[in-house]
Task: inverse folding
């Protein structure tokens, strides 16, 4: 199809503002999917995504639309993941588009995540079409939503499309706006091939499949292609488009969106943001913006049953095929045995992987508290990266420690500004800016250590604003801070998996809270168990679990034997899910307890 | 060959507030004791025939409940007659459980003439206020009368005494025990009140109407009660049981030695030919099955050799004499010190058990936390 009849666009929206429903309606209206075949929200294919109502993996779909001007258009809708962990993926999918629908909930207005993604879209010079959705709600306030779009984002909103995706209102208007306002792609079809990978997935039979937007040139089957980030060469076996199922087309031209199958065995060779060119006479310069996905949050995954180590490794291998951002390396803990230190883009990413391991692979896991990567400057001049607190060198060998900082953007009703500022200060935040979005809502910007965000920031933010705040963050860099490692000793033995790194001013209160939490979580044993928190040799907190005094004194007669056995087995089964450190049985949740202290 | 037989009578005059045993208050059921005893006799005849055929004699017989003595006298008499008729008895230890409120001279005479030689009286406490709180029908005075009646007619009388009752103090328990010791029963079962889910007591505790002694108080009651009874000449031979010389319960030792036994009646459990069996708990089903001449089994599963070893430890360690190495060896042709080497090492390190050349047993420290010790032996 001619470039002038192609439109590439994405949808920017906050969770729950109706992105998936709108996408579904667009599919229906263009006949890409018959209503009968619709399972709700086609674009979110993973069960987990549907359950959580968020998009994790990107999807793309081609819509053929007969516009009111009588011409047929190819509209490529490129979906973006809706979570702060996946900001980079969002920026790549936006880079593949010329326009974006900005969906704003008529009742709720703009949220932080939307704003962050709008800024990304503006950086890519995208044409932004405001869509005010959920106009059918009694609480809808279209004028206010319009005003917000103009005040906050600074784009005219008088022509905003009014829709109710749920009720099917305004869908044609959306399609017409895309045709009329989103510019057609302009890439030179005769130039050397440059295709931007905006997503990929692993297929057990065909290997890693790259989702691409052809920026320049064209690509055909049996062409030898090169990944520009690592120079690896593959031969194209199949090319096609998304309709929404993968449909073979044999070739893709500048401006088009589709998939490439090229016998790529590892999803890491189809990295999001990478540029594909031809092996012969290829482009010299890659498309801008490629960045390896760097894990920001780490934690230990250990099989609750040590016998499941191999199964855990296989499961991680399989997940990794589809998720190049997940990293894992074997590690050993004295307390937990053999496991893996895993790296994630963020907390949600971590939770998703953890859930998938437990749900899809039926593994029972012990997860250690998540932490960030520290840069440690040693006294001998070396610089090392630490992703596991227990590996921090001795204090005498450390010159300084740097930790990652993020810019946090919180949008909230002005009633809660005081509480949230207090929260941010308490999390060692540095105030950057505050602006009123309208008479009732505020955009608050702080720089905060990522470790504090990982810790419990999000939960506290939600509880302090009754869920009315939205939040987004972005890494700004590493900064030196006075950080110390706190060890936890249970019955005089250091439990490595419980060590954590904290700011020196926070170490003692956190040590106290953790020991007190552990005292509640660890069941009483036959003997008294001291729990201590220590910095080096110095004990900063101490609690004692009293010995179990009595657990007996009942009758046991004939009929009771099976029942008694069942009770004891239950007691025993509880213990099986515990880890033995020295003589002490520690339940799994103890290893996450560090997260639940305030 | 000898074995033990238990017969369950699932009827009471009223349900005690703490009870979650399988038993029906007459006022709350249409289930007829007459139909029940008829079915029970059918079961007795089937099992009795099997025992006779196999040449196995019944050396202990225990009729429990519920309240066996709450049966209409004519039904109880029929049952006792039929025990003689169908079971191959070899001058057994024959126990009947009784509620003090049901004991009359006529009943004592009936039981004595039938050959019952041991009575287990559910005295529980000697404080009328607390007895009422538990939903017991009798008073302290009635309990004493019942005991005196039984003492003259039976060579062995056992009293059940409960500890850790709502509002009870250590001193009060000791007063109860002192009074009871003055009566000089041959056997005492002393055990802590256990609040079972779904009972009226559980509701009252949950709502805060009743307060139970805390763990330390309960432990103190257990330890000082034990000390007191030992000073009075009772041997503490099982976690909850005390006896004068020659009066340990043979029937219950069958359970604790993990020996086979047959349980008859509604919901009764058996350990028979290497299987754990459970009779149905549903009255209609129980009657129907037996009317058709079938055993009313609801559950039957084989006990593996490993489970048998574990059960032998879990039950045997309840006895203060512990589990003897030679007895274990003779039964399994394996040394228990090897089979449970890891567990024994762990428990010895904790000081929860002691061993010598002959046996392994709970230590003084292990006794109050025996459940933790038992659980170690389950794999």
Result:
């Amino acid at each position: 199809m001619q470039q002038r009849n192609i439109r590439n666009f994405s949808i920017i929206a906050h969770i729950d503002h109706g992105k998936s429903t709108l996408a579904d309606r667009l599919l229906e209206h263009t006949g890409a999917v018959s209503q009968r075949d619709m399972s709700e929200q086609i674009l979110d294919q993973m069960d987990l995504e549907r359950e959580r109502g968020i998009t994790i993996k990107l999807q793309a779909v081609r819509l053929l639309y007969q516009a009111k001007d009588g011409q047929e258009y190819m509209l490529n809708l490129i979906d973006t993941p809706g979570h702060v962990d996946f900001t980079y993926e969002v920026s790549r999918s936006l880079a593949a588009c010329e326009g974006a629908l900005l969906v704003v909930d008529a009742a709720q207005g703009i949220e932080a995540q939307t704003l962050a993604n709008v800024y990304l879209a503006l950086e890519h010079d995208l044409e932004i079409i405001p869509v005010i959705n959920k106009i059918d709600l009694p609480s809808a306030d279209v004028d206010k939503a319009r005003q917000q779009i103009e005040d906050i984002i600074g784009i005219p909103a008088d022509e905003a499309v009014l829709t109710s995706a749920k009720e099917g209102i305004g869908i044609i208007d959306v399609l017409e706006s895309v045709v009329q306002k989103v510019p057609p792609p302009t890439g030179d079809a005769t130039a050397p091939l440059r295709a931007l990978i905006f997503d990929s997935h692993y297929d057990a039979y065909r290997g890693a499949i790259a989702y691409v937007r052809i920026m320049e040139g064209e690509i055909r089957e049996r062409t030898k292609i090169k990944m520009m980030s690592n120079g690896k060469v593959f031969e194209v076996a199949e090319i096609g488009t998304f309709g929404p199922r993968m449909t073979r087309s044999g070739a893709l031209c500048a401006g088009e969106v589709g998939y490439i199958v090229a016998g790529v065995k590892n999803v890491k060779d189809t990295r999001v943001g990478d540029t594909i060119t031809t092996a012969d006479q290829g482009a010299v310069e890659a498309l801008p913006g490629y960045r390896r996905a760097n894990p920001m949050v780490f934690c230990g995954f250990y099989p609750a049953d040590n016998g499941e180590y191999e199964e855990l490794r296989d499961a991680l291998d399989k997940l990794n095929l589809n998720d190049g951002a997940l990293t894992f390396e074997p590690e050993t803990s004295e307390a937990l045995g053999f496991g893996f230190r895993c790296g994630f883009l963020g907390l949600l990413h971590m939770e998703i992987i953890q859930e998938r391991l437990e749900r899809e692979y039926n593994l029972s896991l012990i997860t250690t508290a998540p932490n960030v990567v520290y840069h440690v400057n040693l006294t001998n001049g070396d610089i090392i990266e630490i992703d596991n607190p227990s590996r921090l060198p001795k204090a005498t060998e450390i010159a300084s420690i740097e930790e990652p900082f993020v810019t946090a953007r919180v949008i909230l009703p002005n009633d809660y500004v005081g509480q949230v500022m207090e929260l941010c200060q308490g999390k060692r935040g540095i105030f950057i800016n505050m602006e009123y979005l309208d008479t009732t809502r505020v955009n608050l910007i702080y720089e905060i250590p990522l470790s504090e965000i990982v810790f419990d920031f999000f939960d506290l933010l939600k509880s302090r604003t009754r869920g009315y705040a939205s939040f987004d963050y972005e890494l700004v860099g590493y900064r030196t801070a006075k950080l110390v490692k706190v060890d936890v000793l249970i019955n005089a033995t250091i439990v490595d998996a419980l060590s954590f790194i904290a700011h020196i001013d926070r170490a003692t209160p956190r040590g106290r809270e953790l020991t007190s939490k552990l005292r509640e979580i660890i069941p009483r044993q036959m003997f008294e168990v001291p729990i201590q928190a220590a910095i080096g040799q110095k004990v900063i907190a101490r609690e004692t679990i009293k010995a179990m005094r009595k657990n007996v004194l009942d009758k046991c007669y004939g009929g009771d034997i099976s029942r008694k056995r069942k009770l004891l087995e239950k007691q025993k089964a509880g213990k099986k899910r515990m880890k033995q450190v020295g003589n002490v049985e520690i339940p799994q949740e103890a290893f996450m307890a560090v997260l639940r202290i305030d | 060959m000898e074995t033990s037989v238990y017969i369950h009578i699932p009827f009471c005059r009223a349900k005690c507030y703490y009870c979650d045993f399988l038993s029906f208050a007459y006022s709350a059921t249409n289930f007829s004791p007459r139909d029940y005893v008829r079915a029970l006799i059918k079961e007795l005849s089937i099992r009795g025939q099997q025992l006779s055929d196999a040449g196995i004699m019944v050396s202990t017989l225990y009729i429990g409940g519920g309240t066996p003595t709450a049966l209409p006298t004519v039904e109880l008499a029929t049952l006792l007659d039929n025990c003689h008729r169908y079971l191959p008895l070899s001058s057994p230890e024959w126990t009947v459980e009784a509620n003090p409120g049901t004991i009359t001279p006529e009943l004592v005479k009936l039981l004595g003439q039938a050959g019952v030689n041991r009575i287990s009286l559910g005295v529980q406490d000697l404080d009328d206020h607390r007895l009422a709180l538990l939903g017991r029908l009798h008073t302290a005075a009635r309990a004493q009368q019942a005991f005196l009646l039984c003492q003259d007619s039976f060579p062995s009388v056992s009293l059940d005494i409960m500890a850790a009752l709502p509002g009870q103090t250590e001193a009060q328990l000791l007063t109860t025990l002192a009074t009871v010791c003055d009566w000089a029963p041959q056997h005492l079962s002393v055990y802590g009140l256990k609040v079972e889910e779904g009972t009226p007591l559980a509701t009252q505790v949950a709502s805060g109407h009743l307060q139970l002694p805390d763990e330390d108080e309960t432990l103190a009651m257990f330890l000082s009660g034990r000390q007191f009874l030992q000073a009075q000449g009772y041997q503490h031979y099982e976690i909850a049981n005390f006896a004068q010389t020659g009066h340990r319960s043979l029937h219950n030792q069958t359970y604790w030695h993990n020996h086979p036994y047959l349980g008859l009646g509604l919901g009764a459990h058996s350990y028979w030919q290497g299987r754990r069996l459970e009779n149905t708990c549903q009255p209609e089903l129980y009657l129907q099955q037996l009317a058709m001449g079938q055993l009313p089994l609801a559950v039957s599963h084989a006990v593996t050799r490993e489970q048998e070893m574990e059960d032998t430890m879990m039950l045997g360690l309840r006895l203060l004499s512990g589990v003897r190495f030679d007895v274990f060896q003779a039964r399994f042709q394996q040394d228990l010190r090897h089979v449970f080497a890891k567990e024994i090492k762990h428990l010895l390190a904790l000081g929860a058990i002691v061993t010598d050349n002959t046996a392994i047993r709970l230590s003084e420290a292990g006794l109050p936390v025996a459940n933790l010790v038992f659980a170690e032996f389950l794999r």
Chain A has a mean pLDDT of 86.
